[in-house]
């Protein structure tokens, strides 16, 4: 990991809601229902559920999640019209190794 990437990740994590989303996604089965069409969390959590749980506007959550995906914290998978997000554990480990 380089300093530029680490700085971008730090910016993404400088918001309480974004950190909370990362915490929720650490144990998705505890924090979200499985999507009706998948019945599992292999591809992550449906973006709709993240939006509902956060209680913020759709545009705000969309912006947060897009930025978190762009800096590598989240992995996006699409199934038809549904988008799913999960933590990118590899990047999280690289980030924590870099800053420690």
UniProtKB/TrEMBL annotation:
GO MF, one example: DNA binding
Chain segments annotated as transmembrane: none
InterPro entries from the UniProt entry: ArsR-like_HTH, HTH_ArsR_DNA-bd_dom, HTH_MetalResp_TranReg, WH-like_DNA-bd_sf, WH_DNA-bd_sf
PANTHER family: TRANSCRIPTIONAL REGULATOR, ARSR FAMILY (PTHR33154), TRANSCRIPTIONAL REPRESSOR SDPR (PTHR33154:SF33)
Keyword line: DNA-binding, Transcription, Transcription regulation
Keyword flag Zinc: no
Keyword GTP-binding: no
Name of the protein described by the UniProt record: ArsR family transcriptional regulator
Boundaries of every HTH arsR-type domain copy: 1-100
Superkingdom assignment: Bacteria
